[in-house]
Amino acid sequence: MSHLNVIVSAIADVAEGIRHFTLVDAAGRELPGFSGGSHVVVSMRAGARTYRNAYSLLSPPSDRSNYQIAVRLQENSRGGSRFMHEQVQVGTALEIAWPVNLFAISRVGRKHILVAGGIGITPFMSQAHDLLRTGANFELHYAFRSPRHAAFVDELRRLLGPRLKCYDQSQGQLLDPAALLSHQPLGTHVYVCGPGGMVDAVLDTAARLGWPDAHVHHEEFLAPPVGEPFAIRLAQSQRVVEVGAEESMLEAMEAAGVDVPYLCRGGACGRCELEVLATDGVLEHHDHYLSEDERRAGNKIMPCVSRAKCTFIELNL
Ligand code: FES
Q1: Is the dihedral of CA 5, 99, 125, 17 positive or negative?
Q2: Which of 135, 158, 194, 218 lies deepest, with the highest CB count within 10 Å?
Q3: Using an 8 Å Cβ cutoff, are 286 and 305 in contact?
Q4: Three-state SS for 178?
Q5: Which atom of ligand 1 is nearest to the CA of 265?
């Protein structure tokens, strides 16, 4: 996969556990253009191991002089967010993949309701710039645990004025998806990014109120969970790749030099889907891409986040 070489030009702490990074092209050129809601995958080399995490771009898409990302330190981080917080300094060189947009604003929506929880605010930063530029009808609803945990509120307030509605949970201000999604004009689209519970609440409410699926958008990059080690047998190349307890199937295959396509690395896009030919155990699906029927069939897996409880799994690769 082609990549860009960038240098970290600034770092700032913007909320408890959230660090903001500004990245510039290593050769001083303009960076590639992108649209609101895009993300980049950052490669982090930690000794013999390479972590790759997806982060939304925060910067105005019209500004190609730099990219900005924000990284929340995950308590149970397997290394990626910890590496960004502890190892990366101003001047650090990083490798990033070209921007990809899996969370684009609908071109046909007449009104757009953006719903963010915590670090889920990040894709809406660039989307807000795009929506303002096109004069779209939109509002941003931003829920956070407390002001200490809320990144970019002042910047968003300046940018959006009354279009921004904040919900400070420490003050008992709770976002009510039913109230938000009821009585919206025909042609409204809703976009949600945040903790799983919030995403589910918005999706469930939209379904219950009869919103068309095509008008409901969400983004949630999941981290691969840890588990027991097992082996992958690659049927076409007759190779065996060992998957450690703390690495994903995708990471293990990459470390072994096996090329597997990906976009989100978080179980959302379906790009890494592989065919399962056999296993002596059970598949543990952690993505939110496969349908229940596909999971039951047991012949597909998303190696970026899913794994298996087994001694071996055989893939058509
Ligand atoms: S890379 Fe997107 S689901 Fe695996």
Answers
A1: negative
A2: 194
A3: yes
A4: helix
A5: 1
Parallel, antiparallel or unpaired: strands 38-46 and 49-56: antiparallel
Both structure tokens of 188: 């409204």
Q: How far is the CA of 303 from the centre of ligand 1 (A)?
A: 8
The pair of structure tokens assigned to 267 is 């179980």
Report pTM: 0.90
What CA–CA distance (Å, rounded) separates 303 from 285? 9
Residue 63 in tokens = 């500004």
Residue whose C-alpha is closest to residue 198's, from 123, 287, 103, 117: 117
Q: Which CATH number fits domain 3-101: 3.30.70.1050, 3.30.565.10, 3.40.50.10470, 2.40.30.10?
A: 2.40.30.10
Report residue 39: phi and psi, to 5°.
-130, 165
Q: How far does residue 263's CA lie from ligand 1's centre (Å)?
A: 6
> Which residue is listed with tokens 């596909």?
294
Using CB distances shorter than 6 Å, the residues near ligand 1 are: 262-265, 267-272, 287, 289, 302, 304
Shortest-distance atom of ligand 1 to CA 261: 1
The proportion of the chain whose per-residue pLDDT surpasses 70, expressed as a percent, equals 99
- Cβ atoms of residues 83 and 69 within 8 Å: no
| Residue whose CA lies nearest to ligand 1 atom number 3 | 267
CATH number of the 230-315 domain: 3.10.20.30
